[in-house]
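Design request, tokens follow.
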């Protein structure tokens, strides 16, 4: 290795750690990053990240694009930098966000290993998906086997990581299968009047979460969700009553529908799974972070009751991983946490 050049693999040493190491030395130069045919350049001036460029983006967007590259390599060449400044955020916040996205992508890749695969719906004609939100339903309608994951992100006008995150949940629910070959045909699409909203970040979730006095205590036992009894029908006056057989049939209370029973059981299973996620996280994270896990679990429980279903469970695992990074947890600790969370979903 020549003087002034640092090189390595992102699998062996995460890129954010190497950038931080170089920036602490106050160096100026360029990181050349590559994964297969994709390439990027990240520029530092006196240790500060000032510019990044890829084939598709530049500035901070280009830097966040590199967060999806987990198998590539890099080398840093120390030299004077003559490029415009397009990134003005502090290094600490940039590297934290870059590391968080890389950890999030490692979880997503368990079900979506490549953005060049072709998602195809597994639903039968006329079958309606259950437990999906509006954005996932729109995405599911586009999963014909023709478009790749990257192409779906362009069609949806959503960040690639957002579409991959939704596909993670759809694959986990058994609604989508990923294929290596293109099939089907393109759809005639209508441009939506406004883009679908992305999931709220963890900071927004915590800001909206109720305080300790108002929030319900997170239970450690399965949360029962009993069905509501049917309303009592008012009795008709004697002169207006039907014959005895008809009156008896009218007075009989309706039986709970199979759909209602299934929904109740499904909610209980989802609640129990959030508890398993919280308990697994507490086994890894230090005690000072357990209250944060409780807050995120309480928020997920509210989302499940509101009808978000598996999306809330998936979001809880990703939110805990993200919060651990934002709280400054050690990289090895975060990786151990992600391993525990992955194991829960693979054995579910």
């Amino acid at each position: 290795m020549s003087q002034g050049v640092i090189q390595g693999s992102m699998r062996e040493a995460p890129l954010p750690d190497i950038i931080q190491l170089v920036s602490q030395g106050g160096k100026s130069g360029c990181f050349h990053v590559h994964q297969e045919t994709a390439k990027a350049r990240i520029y530092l001036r006196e240790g500060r990240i000032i510019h990044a460029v890829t084939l598709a983006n530049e500035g901070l967007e280009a830097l966040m694009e590199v967060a999806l590259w987990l198998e590539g390599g890099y080398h840093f060449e120390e030299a004077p930098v003559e490029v415009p400044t397009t990134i003005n955020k502090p290094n600490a916040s940039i590297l934290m966000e870059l590391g968080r996205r890389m950890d999030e992508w490692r979880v997503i890749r368990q079900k979506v290993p490549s953005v060049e695969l072709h998602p195809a719906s597994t639903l039968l004609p006329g079958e309606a998906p259950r437990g999906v939100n509006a954005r996932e339903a729109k995405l599911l309608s586009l999963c014909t086997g023709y478009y790749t994951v990257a192409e779906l992100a362009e069609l949806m006008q959503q960040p690639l990581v957002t579409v991959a995150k939704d596909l993670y949940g759809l694959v986990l629910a058994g609604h989508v299968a990923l294929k290596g070959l293109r099939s089907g045909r393109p759809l005639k699409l209508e441009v939506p009047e406004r883009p679908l909203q992305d999931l709220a970040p963890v900071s927004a979730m915590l800001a909206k979460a109720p305080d300790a006095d108002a929030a319900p205590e997170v239970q450690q036992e399965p949360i029962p969700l009993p069905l509501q009894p049917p309303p009592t029908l008012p009795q008709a006056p004697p002169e207006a009553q039907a014959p005895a057989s008809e009156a008896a049939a009218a007075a009989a209370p309706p039986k709970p529908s199979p759909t209602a029973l299934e929904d109740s059981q499904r909610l209980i299973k989802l609640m129990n799974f959030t508890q398993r996620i919280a308990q697994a996280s507490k086994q890894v994270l230090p005690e000072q972070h357990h209250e944060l896990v409780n807050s995120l679990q309480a928020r997920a429980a509210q989302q499940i009751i509101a009808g978000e279903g598996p999306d809330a469970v998936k979001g809880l695992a990703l939110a805990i991983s993200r919060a651990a990074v934002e709280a400054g947890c050690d990289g090895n600790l975060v990786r151990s946490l992600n391993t525990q969370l992955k194991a829960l979903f693979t054995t579910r």
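Comment from the thread starter after seeing the answer: thanks! DSSP finds twelve helices and seven strands in the chain.
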